[in-house]
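Thread: "does anyone have the structure for this chain?"

Original post by V.I.:
We have the sequence but no experimental structure in hand. Need at least a predicted one for the grant figures.
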Amino acid sequence: MPWTPGSYPPSMKNLDAQVREKAVEIANALLEENYQEGRAIAIAIAAAKKWAENSADRKTSGERLHVIPHPQGWAVRRANAERASFVFNTKTQAQNKAIQMARDENRTVVIHDEDEEFESQSASASSVLS
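Reply from O.Q.:
Generated one for you, tokens below.
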């Protein structure tokens, strides 16, 4: 029996909606290839979780966070963003927030000086100072 986003195996109920939809799609394809139902479900859930993880990595990997001067102090701004995500009184506060965000989001931090010129950059989120 093919599943739908509204009618799916109970083992998929705790998945995020997008992950569940992908799992249903994969499970239905496996059933068409004559996989047993239980095996199809297990494979589909694992594959959908992997798909979601890879999708999230592609969205954030390589994007930069910039620490830049701001009229009210120092700001953390995402690459290509028009507005700052956060504004702080000091450069150190902005750097600390950018480092935290970089670790959480797998991003690179670019530090600018008072003239908005490049000052330094972390190679990757994992190499940002502790």
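V.I.: this helps a lot. The two ends are 52 Å apart (CA to CA).
O.Q.: and The mean pLDDT is 83.
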